[in-house]
Specification:
220 residues; Nucleotidyltransferase, domain 5; five-stranded mixed beta sheet; 30% helix; IS3 family transposase
Length: 220
Amino acid sequence: MKGPSPDWPLDRENGIQAIRSRKKRYQRRGLAPSFGYAPNLLEQDFTADKPNEKWVVDLSYIATIRGWTYLAVVMDLYSRRIVGWHMNDRMKQDLALQALKMAIALRQPEPGLIHHSDRGSQYVATEYQMTLKQHGILSSMSGKGNCYVCEADDAKRRHNAVVEAFFKTLKAELVWRVKFESREQAERTINEYIMNFYNRKRRHSTLGNISPMAYEKLAA
């Protein structure tokens, strides 16, 4: 089955219908810190007063006929915009690192930005933490009990509820509707969704019912 065309139904701004969510696939993150854990600077405060004040990051999985592929994203909490992402067939350090490098190249953040993650091995790795330090980005990590990608009864207690909500939206609106024949197809389609629909057109109630990019433009 082929992926959605550029004129997919999601492009109709008022045509999205709610879809019942599926049961979450639990996966444990490796806990092998090589740079040490960081304190929780975010403290479950998902608000931001300006762009590049707080970023949250996470990883998720996408099913294809050829096997699993993995997606790492970086979200700016100010506008809920996905500012960096990367896909790979392995959940290694480079998966998260390439998403971070994309976000840094796109946004050119000033020193002092808070970067919040879980304690997954991808985020505590030396090269990842050194990249944060080189750009004056402050590392923040959730507590020991938050090392699973899972759904909780109280979303406010989750270490990165906002970016997890993005993954839920992505899967409900796109991934669960398409049977990807290859990892390459999944990557192309998800890139299109993030760049040309989610960031540019998808309306968010928390942003006054406008898209992330429209919100940033209006605020500017």
